[in-house]
Amino acid sequence: LVWVLVLSLAWLGPALGGEEEDGEVVAEEEEEDEVLSDELGEEDGVLVLHEHNFARALSEHQLLLVEFYAPWCGHCQRLAPAFAQAAAVLRDESSPARLGKVDATAQTALANEFGITSYPTLKLFRNGNRTHPLAYTGRMDAKGIVRWMQRRAGPSATLLQDASTAAAFVSSQDLVVVGFFKDLESEAAQVFYEVAGEVVDMPFGVAEAAEVFEAYELSADTVCLFKKFDEGRTDFPVDPVRGLDAAELTQLLRVQRLELVLEFTNETSDQIFGANIPHHMLLFLNKSSSAQLELRDGFRAAAGTFRGKVLFVVVDVAGYGADVLSFFGLTPADAPTMRLVKMDNNRKYQMDQDVFSDTAIRTFVQAVLDGKVKPRLLSAEPPEDWDTRPVKILVGKTFEQVAYDETKNVFVKFYAPWCSHCQAMAAAWEELGERYKDHEDIVIAELDATANELENITISGFPTLHYFPAGPGRKMVEYKSARDVETFSKFLENGGTLPEEPPAVSEVPPAPGPGTPTHARVAP
């Protein structure tokens, strides 16, 4: 999602990707002549694995988390220090869990065996089982890796044997989950343990003693979320017929664990984007203004109506949120103002009301959910010479007239300024523009998709290339072939078609998983 990506860039800096210098590749080639044994070597406390020692590693380690990486992958390089730090923490705890790594570009047999299609990919191997590794689902940092492995090395939930133990557990942290089950061997209890193993950023407890049920005024199996904010406790009764559904319970916990209104900060960003809530309602204000701070009361009053459907977030335009203002086409002087973002397609909706009462906010949000409000689309201003260059510079407000000109065949590159793959193909695109600048019916163009939005086209990866053929019908063909001038030309000369070819590598914004970095795709 683009707003996730832009916000991520605010604290992560420009996205990295692409290949490194050839020196690393040469070094790998020189090492190919080494005779590999089944000895288990280490680098920074991480096991170095290959096809000759992989089986031994599985047999000697009950829990083995393996990173499949590529030496040139920027995301792998950034993960390496955290991975080594996590390995050290687990070793110091005398944990049965170990970490290992496989260079998937050199160990192609292992990469093929485990279906590695992107870097980095992490898989957990249990008890020597080679056929059914578990995909890693935690955060890509040292703390997240350690927590995820600890949950798998020990019990996922603490047994609360009596009321006093339960009370101490509930008060121990700001947020805890307790499953009350009259039979800890029941199917519902097993689902609870499964969820506890996955949701590693909250402590889980479990109780079956009658006195604990009585202490919390429960008579049937129930999952309770205890929190030291908002309403204090949220109960999820177990349906006696349906039981517990792991995905449903996980999502309920992720939603209900959040404060009703969150301020966008470095500490809350993972919660905001990891909650998987489809709409975000944003209040942009300047916290140094007492008058603007008072708007939070009406904002909070409206939030409860849409819990689980819309996440309400306050953005300080003079603080941490300043770096994302340009993404919304805002400046600090525009505060206070509100925007609702649909996270699936990045459409943004502006609340035009002058009065930000809770009633006005509810009315606006409901109107957007009902499809009664049109999105507000960003557009940069076109350069004065935008249509005289070999490559035409399109913006949101000029796109329609150029791309859907029925007398022209228009080839458009949608790019992001920070995208390394876009930068790598920039020269080829300019050369293509020079080659076709005198063709009356062919237009080569480009559009910065981070500064311009289109009503019916959503760009999810960079670069994306679309061909708009001449004629009626507003047709669009996505180009997925090699990114060189000759192949581009062949595509244009053949009227927007080419024999089927493998897609090239794209840089794609991260999924809204918590803390997960962008993966580098592996071209088939």
Give me the secondary-structure topology.
Blueprint: H1 2-12, H2 22-31, E1 41-43, E2 46-49, H3 54-60, E3 63-69, H4 74-92, E4 97-103, H5 108-113, E5 118-119, E6 121-126, E7 134-135, H6 142-153, E8 158-159, H7 163-171, E9 175-180, H8 187-198, E10 204-207, H9 210-215, E11 222-227, E12 233-237, H10 246-256, E13 261-263, H11 269-274, E14 279-285, H12 290-293, H13 295-303, E15 310-316, E16 337-342, E17 347-350, H14 358-369, E18 392-394, H15 396-403, E19 409-415, H16 420-424, H17 426-436, E20 442-448, E21 464-468, E22 477-479, H18 485-493, E23 520-521
Parallel strand pairs: 2-4, 3-4, 8-10, 9-10, 13-15, 14-15, 18-20, 19-20
Antiparallel strand pairs: 1-2, 3-6, 5-23, 6-7, 9-11, 11-12, 14-16, 16-17, 19-21, 21-22
Catalytic activity: Catalyzes the rearrangement of -S-S- bonds in proteins
GO molecular function: protein disulfide isomerase activity
EC number: 5.3.4.1
Q: Roughly what is the average pLDDT, rounded to an integer?
A: 86
Name given to the CATH architecture of the largest domain: 3-Layer(aba) Sandwich
Q: Termini distance?
A: 24 Å
The spatial strand order of the largest sheet comes to: 1-2-4-3-6-7
- Tell the overall outline: globular
How many structural domains?
Answer: 4
CATH superfamily of the largest domain: Glutaredoxin
Q: Give the CATH level 1 class of the largest domain.
A: Alpha Beta
- Please tally the helical runs, counting DSSP H or I stretches of 4 or more residues: 18
Largest sheet: 6 strands, mixed
- Strand residue percentage: 15-25%
Number of strands: 23
